[in-house]
Hints:
The complex is a heterodimer of chains A (262) and B (393).
Chain A lengths: L10 E12 L2 E12 L3 E5 L6 H8 L7 E6 L2 E2 L5 H6 L2 E3 L12 H5 L11 H6 L1 H21 L15 H14 L4 E5 L7 H16 L3 E5 L3 H7 L3 E5 L2 E6 L1 H5 L2 H8 L4
Parallel strand pairs in A: 3-8, 3-9, 6-7, 7-8
Antiparallel strand pairs in A: 1-2, 1-4, 4-5, 9-10
Chain B lengths: L2 H6 L7 H22 L5 H28 L6 H16 L11 H23 L4 H21 L1 H4 L21 H4 L3 E6 L2 E5 L1 H28 L2 H11 L1 H6 L4 H27 L10 H13 L4 H17 L15 H16 L14 H7 L9 H8 L3
Antiparallel strand pairs in B: 1-2
Helix pairs in contact in B: 3-9, 3-10, 3-12, 3-13, 3-14, 4-5, 4-6, 4-12, 4-13, 5-12, 9-12, 10-12, 13-14
Amino acid sequence: MSEGALPKQDAVLRVDDLQKSFGGLAATDHASFAVERGTITGLIGPNGAGKSTLFNLISGFYEPDGGTVEVNETDVTGMEPYQVADHGLIRTFQTPRKLEGMTVREAMLVGPRNQPGESFVKLFAAPGTVAERESTNLAEAERILEEFEIDHLATQPATDISGGQMKLVELARAMLAEPEVLLLDEPVAGVNPTLAKKLKDQIRRLNEQGTTFLLIEHDMEFVMDLADPIVVLDQGSVLTEGSPEEVRSDDRVIDAYLGGGT
Amino acid sequence: MSLLDGARGSLTELSRPERWVLGVSAAFALFLLAALLTGALGPTYFLFLVGLAGMYALLSFGLNAQWGFTGLINFSVAAFFGIGAYGSALMTADSSPIAGGFNPLVGLVVALVVAFVLALLIGIPTLRLRADYLAIASLGLAEVVRLIVLNERWLTNGSAGLRGIPSFFQGWPVLSTFPEAMPGLRLVVIPGSPILLETSFWQSLLNVMLVLTFAGVTYLVLRRAHRSPWGRVLRTIRSDEDLARALGKNTYSFKMQSFILGSLIMALAGVFYTHLNLYVGPGDLDPITTFYAWVAVILGGSGSNRGALFGGIVIVTIREGTRFLNDVALPIDPAPLRLLLIGVVIVAVMRYRPQGILPPQRELIWPSAVDGGGTPETPDSGVREQKGGGSNE
């Protein structure tokens, strides 16, 4: 049925026979695929195909009914989201999450993992280490904001920027967590064409620098231009997988999108 | 930044509400000073009020560390306060049915340990769940603790309460005999109404020093914690717990730390109360204390430590200030007015300033990191154009 289970040489993320049902409805139905290191893998499928469920399963927000998820050859099935993140898998959300009462750069500073300042004891026992890391993180946050050309927003309230800018900030913050594989849930949904292009350029640039991406996107033009390979999901399982050209010319994909599937 | 730091800076740097609070506080301080000098307000009673204000400030600090920082809804402030009060009273009081006679420092430690264990016990089942579950469980916990204290006579003396509680400094060198050792003073500021400073005054002064130490240390700890990466994770959890989890934060552990920290501070308030009042009874565990702490935190501005301090002082002012309404010939009994007045204050705050009087407003980044970071402080003039151009909404 799906060719996605083929072993791949260097998979940073491997999903095998993943299942999840909600009250008899199989939202994820024996889905298998792998994300190869260094790629931008697209995950597409019609509405209700189970893309977001799959994301939640991979990132630990849902516990699967069956199957496994491996990040970097480590089985992370059933782990808490923070543990999955600790193995190098970071995700973003479809709607940008707002951090009340924080400036953009404060919101950025939530990104880095395992900060010494996140230990209450170290705040008092080793304030020097805390301050040092905070300085490094702040400099890094500002460098990334600059690369994203949104450094002018650094001291703005994080809730006062536009939806598109929030998407950029979210991507920038995720980079601070130094992900090995970054899951983006509709990075350009509701984003104007100018910012969408900016996001695309950033994703491409970060990918060239070594970050692997898995992204859900409804904007076909965007995903066909950016992602390779593309995994097509329909009714909870992987319909097909391949380069944009292969996917585009696959009749089954067209059927799935037009609702002609049996 | 503390109120003090703000006052040291230029006045123009302060926001409007800050200047307003500063002005009202100064006027209130002058009023108190005048009342003290004219003998209208006894100095010992005044110090008792300061002690109470410190106690309420501690309670609001504790709740602020839970609700203000992390968004944890705790309706058992009175229970943790009571645990602190009873924990230390049972260790130190003559009439204690179980132990008694220990050094107050032992009482302090025991009270904190019991509060820690209780916070852990209530946190383990509820903090993994949505916020409302802690709210419900804590509501139940408050009643459970109160009823145990009321009914388990072998343990707590029941409704009779505990008497014979020593001062906190009993057994300490110098300080334990300090009130007796101090000479009685007679100050005449206004001829005809001398102010007497006797043993009870010095005792109250010691109590005030104690609560100022507790509150001061707590404030400094919370201030550092609030602006640290630790506090930032808590604030992220408050806004969006899923985001924190997705970024690799063990939110359960952070929530537990925040809950325990707040509970310990509330117990600290209870320990102080025991040695201030020298009597504790089951009535001290009434849910009204929880209510007062919530009002103080919301009034001051959730998440703001100085707001919690301000809120605590306002609560004591309303609670104790209304006693003087007895002197004014009013057609109604003023006692119920207290709650009414607090209700009016809450309605007014919610209507005109839902974020509280002194909400946290400054950027919270570890201070030396910002100073040393060489960061662009204010956005340049291109911000607005850029923002307009980049906005898609």
